[in-house]
Amino acid sequence: MKVNKFLLFMIVAALTAIIAACGTEADDTNKDDSAAGKTPDKNTASAQDSAAEDLEGSVVIDGSGTVYPLMARLAEEYMINEQEGVSVEVSRAGTSAGFKKFLVENGTDFNDASRQIKDEEAAEADKLGIEVKELKVALDGLTFVINKDNDWANEMTPEQLVSIFLADGNVEKWSDINPEWPDEKINAMGPNENHGTYEFFYEKILDKQDMNSNVNLQQEYSTLVNLVSEDKNGIAFFGFGYYVNNQEKLQAVGVDFGNGPVEPALDTIAEDGAYADFTRPVFTYLNVNHAKEKPQVRDYAIYVMNNINKFAGETGFAPIPETEVKEVISFLEGLN
User: Fold this and answer.
1) Same domain, 111 and 214
2) Region Disordered: start and end of each range (predicted)?
3) Are residues 158 and 255 in the same domain?
């Protein structure tokens, strides 16, 4: 019996030593984490919270073809790196056509826009009980592009550019602008009425004066790129991003606002910069009702604003001030 008691004592002692050692290792680990500024318990909780926030469902976006490359890029990043269970569908019907899909019962979650919402569109939202939030996402420079072989019209004044597109501009040939330029017909082009870029051009640049009926208006920006790239006498206008992505096919017109020609670029496109007269903000409009009802819509809106300036430059947009970004994020985080 004495031997058995001795063995039992040794076993208990060994177990006690093992338990003590494990406790010491845990304490050491906690001390190391504490020294590194870590809190293991909170990290574990955070991982659990993250898993609990995995979302599912869809986010539906339509609207501006100008804003499309930026929103499509953000959607791709979001689905790959943030929420694999969420499908973000981005289309590009054009700003005005997009608002028609946005301002209906069970409409789209976002409408990208290269102009601000119109009074009648806002009134329709009120009528339908849709709370709309404007999210300013970037700055764009209206860009005039010409054929690579055009070596005479690469610098113009705003007045000369406008005269090409005005109904009473009295300009049909390049020589009508400058007698030293070719006596050949100008083939002017641009996006059609579905696009906010058309409306911005008509309202802000043409000052609501009638556009020349000979201007070739197209639905697809890619069509405009191809038409100008194949026509030595072609000229078109659209957002800076479409020029940036097609510089091998086109050249941008430098615009002389009075202090020498300025080309649109990320460092000139600004509301108070050298290209200010042709700079405009672009937006996405959020259906706040949907954001409150569908967690993935609110989450995507927050993701967009947190990352908008990160991806603006690579898709041909200038960033917006961080103070504006933070204000919108604060609003979005307060939705419930």
Assistant:
1) no
2) 28-51
3) yes
